[in-house]
Amino acid sequence: MSAVDTSVASWKELLEGNNALRSIALAGGVSMQAINVYMVTTILPTVIQDIGGLAYYAWSTTLFVVASIVGSALAAKLIEALGPRHSYLMALAVFSAGSMVCALASSMPVLLAGRSVQGFGGGILIALSYALIRVVFEERLWPRAMALISGMWGLATLSGPAIGGVFAESGHWRWAFWFLLPIALLLALIVIGQFEARTRNNSTSTRLPLATIGLLVTSVMAISLASLSREWLWSLIGVASGLGLGALIAWRDNRALVKLLPTGAYSLTKPLGRLYAIMTLLIVAITCEIFVPYFLQLIHGLSPLSAGYLTAAMAGGWTIGSLFSAGKTGSGVERLSRLGPPLVCLALSALAVMTPLESLFETTLGAGLYILALAAVGLGIGLGWPHLLTRVFIAAEPGEETLASSSITTVQLYASALAAALAGVIVNGAGLLEPGGVVGAQQAAVWLFGVSGVAPLLAMLLMARK
């Protein structure tokens, strides 16, 4: 048996020769999905002005994320069936097809169909990018490759709003979607030359909890449909139905042979269950960002580019908080983790007060305070996020560590989809559609940020439990 090479790999080894091309392929898949998220958030108000569909504003995010969940769940099966090369090429083709549908959309239903296809392909791309690290690189390169791919989300916060803002301000929002196609083609050429057609060991068969995933999708869609009703009673019935299906998911998954989440994930009496609940609540708190560009453009008259970059302050704050807290240990970790939710609650309360003020951006002080509040939402989450994820690994039952680590993505995506659907219910019911206009957006902003502020309060209560 040959000895395992335990030497530390350098960035140079990862970024030269064939390894450089493989790194571009895997990082490129994640960056396309990530850039697309921030790009669409920036251009969506302009899209609404052109083709209508304000009532479905949140659906663009909801359907995209739900489809991403399904796509990411199928990635392992695709590797087994098609091999690394063809599974990656298929994911690129699906994502590109969705982008083309979005670019050609003449109505919101068509755009939503394209976003669903995009999300499905993007979910596969993200899962493949992480899964194929083990296939295309030596083991000692894995940590560097993981860091490179994860860093693409930070890159997206800078480039996504810029790409979307430039095309939106020029009156050619459709070209933002066409822009993604040459990138997909370049990645496809690299994949053809660098990825194997088959893995060396293809004997293990991955089983999927398809019924549970189906219920998950249905629960999100039930809440999304509730956002279309002008009557609060029907909205509440839709929300209750979606949450009821969520309870059914927990009941079924606890008894399933093939689980979606590890043991204890659905119980607040278990450490793992509390960790997942805290993660979900923090995601709910920050998902209000999907409406920030709309509020800034309609209420304050900001350009798409400016509104996109201001919205990205939330993601920037998250990154700063995560980097600051990642190296902390001992009691410092606990203090930062407990500081986060109150900071998020305070920042959301400030946004609820400031966003409706039409004179807010007339002074440098007002603009500065608003940007600070946006960044503080992300900062509060980032302060404890790395340690929440680490605790998930520790809290998992013996033998379920791998399932726990892979389920983090599922929990995040489901929480994002659920939160986007709930945000749609809140803003539509609060006045975004009727009376609509500036007054409706002002009312919707107060309700959205105010209700979102409840989530970090609940997270604080869960953190207080031992």
Describe this structure in words.
It is a single chain. The protein is built from 20 helices and no strands. By secondary structure, it is mostly helical. Helix 2 packs antiparallel against helix 4 (108-131), helix 2 (17-51) packs parallel to helix 6 (142-150) and helix 12 (271-286) runs antiparallel to helix 17 (385-395). The model is unreliable at 1-6 (pLDDT under 50).
Write the layout of secondary structure elements.
Layout: H1 11-14, H2 17-51, H3 59-104, H4 108-131, H5 133-136, H6 142-150, H7 152-169, H8 174-178, H9 180-194, H10 210-226, H11 232-255, H12 271-286, H13 292-300, H14 304-326, H15 331-354, H16 364-382, H17 385-395, H18 401-432, H19 437-452, H20 454-464
Helix pairs in contact: 2-4, 2-6, 2-7, 2-9, 2-14, 3-4, 3-9, 3-10, 3-18, 7-14, 10-11, 10-18, 12-17, 12-18, 12-20, 13-14, 13-19, 14-16, 15-16, 15-19, 15-20, 17-18, 18-19
Mean of residue pLDDT values = 89
H/E order of the elements?
HHHHHHHHHHHHHHHHHHHH
**What is the distance, rounded to the nearest whole angstrom, between the alpha carbons of the first and last residues?**
46 Å
* Sheet having the most strands: none
Q: What is the CATH H-level superfamily of the largest domain?
A: MFS general substrate transporter like domains
Approximate shape: globular
CATH topology of the largest domain: Growth Hormone, Chain: A
Helix content: over 70%
